[in-house]
Amino acid sequence: MIACRNLSKSFRIFEKKPGLSGSLRQLFKREYRSSHAVDSFNLEIGKGEFVGLLGPNGAGKTTLMKMLTGIIVPTSGEALVAGHQPSKREIPFRKKIALVMGQKSQLWWDIPAMDSFLLLQRYYEIEEKAFRKRLGDLSELLGVTNLLNVHIRKLSLGERMKMELMACILHEPDVVFLDEPTIGLDVIAQKNIREFLGSYQKQKNITVVLTSHYMADVQSLCNRIVLILDGKKRFDGSRSEFEDILGREKSISLRFEHAPNIDDHAWSKMDPKWSNNNFQVELRIPEATMRQTLADILLRFPVIDVVSEKMAVERVMETLLKRPELIPESR
Amino acid sequence: MGTIIKYARIYRGFINTCISQATSFRLHFFLLIFMDLFFYISSLATVDFIFDYVPMIGPWNRDQFLFFISFMLAIDQLHMTFVSEGFWSFSFELRTGHLDFHLLRPAGTIFSVFFRHIRAGSLLLIFVPWACLIWFGMKIPLDPFAWVLLPCFVIAGLILLVSFELFMTMFVFWTIEVYGINFLRIQFQQLSRWPAFAFKPWPRRIFTFVLPILLIGTPTTGVLLGTSPWYALLYMLAATLILWGLVRWLWLTGLKSYESASS
Asked: What is the pTM of this model?
């Protein structure tokens, strides 16, 4: 469904010297430097995959998405999305894709969402009956039926994002690009959007590429992760493979009734991170020996609570961003 | 045929959303109507005032000149109603990256960007310049064939004006900031509201053959009034075609260099 080979994008960035003399000088002579936002990127995504495109700010995720949607033209390389070359911006191609940008709104601010949807119906030539059905189903699923006639500027951020999602999938695209769709939302709104995206993708079997800095989005939605650092692909594999990059270990947190002896040799092999008062510890335990190790700890120490790690992706991501040399070369 | 129907339906959607948007701000809506009316009255009154002191300007008398002014106002009215907002919003869309959404829509992007904004208030005043045009046309009076040609010539003038302004606006891809280009555009609009014979030879040649703003109204009204030969219309047609060719080339070149705002 998506394929790109040696896809690259460079931007020419102008650097201005500070102060008045710098301002005057730049009128006549400018110094530019080249920035490689995306560098020789290769990627293949099949139909029905839900792929998380991860990376820090400025890594090149959005630039890659913009090239795959035809918004910007690559400096070099080839891309094919839903059978089309995105940079040609053919009309049938535009009907097959959709892009949601969490930080930009495609809906008209000063009119109700319904008016925008009616306009999109005409753009995408959606038949009246199908349009009404999709609109009804989506608004019910997202819980915004009573907000369709409210001006967009009067909606909360969460409600607005639901409308954005509806606008994006009304024409039932084959490929959906989601650029930080949950940014700025409260936890409940994030959860609602996540649940909607998960069920919609399964139901329609569409291909979704998601970027997000909220690892909960990635953990619950993506079955494949692509990591991009400085415009280059550094990892491409399943989510479980990504979680195993740092070894097959589990992160376990324990809470004690009273502080145990932290110098006990039992802790030393488990990379313990103690809380200030030593009432809590976070341990790294190899998966293979976890049952036995936990049993020993429970017998010997006054444990009152055990919490296993929920967000392995977040821990791996955090570590890799600090120490990118840990990323295996072969990926 | 299917494409025309699709675009007509989209355009109806544009009108609906623009009316919905404009009527959300009632005071502003009525203020714009007042502003347009004031513009029509002041344009006609200025020329009328000059004719209180001179019997003729060039080959035209008061009624002929006021017919020309009404003709240009009819073009301006259509321009203000259906296109002018797009020229202002283009730079904003370019700078903020909102152009991205236009590029994703399954329709011509120039159509989506420049014909998306319709000034609902101005739409209501469509009868004002046309009433003036018919009034002064009857006073001249125009012959029956000229009445048939009149609406076609207004549309032809509008197409040339829009082509010229699109051509200028394409440079926003490189200037990014739109004020300089838009104020220049407005200056040219003001010059085009005078007939060609009002200019000295060299400016007239430049504004006819290099920056063809004097072709917007002068050849057509000249043909209607019998003061210009019919082949003057060919200059107008040639200028429109050349400008569209340039617009298309600049548009495609501009889009290639479009970087989209970071998000």
From this structure: 0.83
